[in-house]
Design a protein that fits this description.
- By secondary structure, the chain is α/β, with parallel strands linked by helices.
- It has two domains: about 160 residues, Aspartate Aminotransferase, domain 1; about 240 residues, 3-Layer(aba) Sandwich (Aspartate Aminotransferase, domain 2), CATH 3.40.640.10.
- The protein contains twelve helices and 13 strands.
- Strands 4-10-9-8-7-5-6 form a seven-stranded mixed β-sheet, with helices on both faces. A four-stranded mixed β-sheet has the order 1-2-3-13.
- Strand 1 and strand 2 form a beta hairpin.
- The longest helix has 22 residues.
- It binds pyridoxal-5'-phosphate.
- The site of pyridoxal-5'-phosphate has 12 residues, from helix 4.
């Protein structure tokens, strides 16, 4: 099996660092996420479950644009809905009827939603959720999970990050995931000051195994927070529509007060949504939050087409089934080669790690070998399935994985 090289990508990266700080930033940046010689950094074509880099290398994509691609790149119905709207009107001085129609669809689909509010990025709506919680309760403190990510707004960043003030984090209390005792302690100490609790439906940090909620965890969280007069916010930005079309809380059987969505909502068109319960409608209206591009109508039309297609395909269950097939295949191949591969998180967006070296280096080396053969995996972050991945793709991916295990074994110091 041929391994890829990245001459054009490397040349572009050299140009990029001259004019863009860091060259390519965030998860798309090489450092500290992926070895620079094993990955492409630029692509100008994508279709279905595949993209092609600027050197013409073809990849089956298991990062799915880090979540937004859920039906496959360039999905015909979603793109047609976007284009039709874009040609009629997109940015405009007044709101589009599509905004109302999409809000109606979300209120219909999502049991927690009595209203919906729209923005562009995930952080817009996790931030809005916290502002609504503070406005509704008149309290300052937010409980969040250690290692949880909700975007780059200063209060959401980890201590020690550049450009962040101590004061930004003053009213955020971090506790471990699945730890009801820690939650009870914080409520006992700060009860009258606690506006709300924010967490993802299950814990999906980077560089670490993902953790599902323990039995009864969310139900107890809701009970404790509500008893304290505080609100429960679910950050469904990454998980939204890959676990359950009614919001991931439906999969785990609880009812939060606010849910933040983005990423998969419009199959790659820029959109986010905050939905909430009736009692928060007035506070959602009072909080001042808006943006120059938040009314662009093309994304609303794309989201309606995307969500209807996910409903038609039973997308969440389809992606879980594909993830099961992929992860079971990899675990079994790993065992054949003498490695132990651990799967964590939900199967529609699994996190995988070779455990034999006790850290993520072996996994990073193996993901690099897969990527150089056309299965685009990263080692620090969960992967994503989409409804565009096929049984054939998975079969081909498993062949690549097999070759990658052989290459890993042949490389220095990589014996299990
Ligand atoms: C769970 C979660 N919340 C919030 C965000 C922030 O979303 P955005 O990058 O669109 O602002 C992300 C982005 O990766 C995320 O994974």
């Amino acid at each position: 099996m041929k391994t890829y090289t990245y001459e054009n990508s490397t040349a572009l990266f050299k140009r990029a660092v001259k004019v863009i700080p860091c060259g390519v930033y965030g998860h798309f940046s090489p450092a500290p996420y992926v070895p620079v010689d094993a990955y492409p950094f630029f692509s100008d074509r994508a279709r279905g479950a595949r993209f092609w880099d600027v050197d013409g290398n073809e990849f089956i994509d298991y990062m799915c644009a880090y979540g937004p691609m859920v039906l496959g790149y360039k999905h015909p119905e979603v793109d047609a809905a976007f284009l039709k709207q874009h040609v009629e009107s997109d940015a405009n001085s007044v709101a589009s009827p599509r905004m109302v129609e999409l809000a109606e669809l979300l209120v219909d689909m999502i049991p927690t939603a009595d209203w919906a509010f729209f923005a562009r990025n995930g952080a817009d709506v996790t931030n809005m959720a916290v502002m609504v919680a503070r406005s509704a309760t008149g309290r300052k403190k937010i409980i969040a999970i250690k290692g949880g990510y909700h975007g780059t707004t200063p209060w959401m960043q980890a201590p020690g990050h550049h450009g962040i003030l101590e004061e930004d984090l003053q009213h955020v209390i971090r506790i471990p995931w699945n730890d009801i005792k820690a939650l009870e302690t914080v409520i006992a100490e700060h009860g009258p000051d606690i506006a709300g609790f924010i967490a993802t439906p299950y814990h999906h940090p980077v560089f670490a195994d993902n953790e599902l909620p323990a039995d009864g965890y969310w139900q107890k969280v809701v009970e404790l927070l509500h008893k304290n007069g505080s609100l429960v916010i679910v950050d469904d930005v990454r998980t939204g529509f890959r676990l359950h079309l009614g919001g991931s809380c439906e999969r785990y059987g609880f009812k939060p007060d606010l849910i933040a969505f983005s990423k998969a909502i419009a199959n790659g068109y820029a959109l986010s949504a905050l939905v909430g319960v009736e009692s928060l409608r007035v506070d959602a209206a009072k909080v001042f939050h808006t943006g120059s591009f938040w009314f662009c109508a093309g994304s609303f039309a794309a989201a309606m087409a995307c969500l209807k297609e996910l409903q038609r395909l039973d997308g969440a269950n389809l992606m879980q089934a594909l993830g099961k097939r992929l992860t079971e295949g990899i675990v079994s191949l790993a065992a054949n080669h003498g490695y132990t591969m651990k799967v964590s998180g939900e199967l529609s967006m699994p996190y995988m790690r070779i455990t034999d070296d006790g850290n993520v280096m072996l996994q990073q080396a193996w993901c690099s070998e897969c990527t150089k053969r056309g299965a685009f995996f990263t080692s620090h972050h969960n992967w994503f399935l989409s409804t565009a991945h096929t049984e054939e793709d998975i079969k081909h991916t498993l062949d690549i994985c097999d070759e990658a295990f052989k290459a890993l074994k042949n490389s220095d110091g990589a014996q299990p």
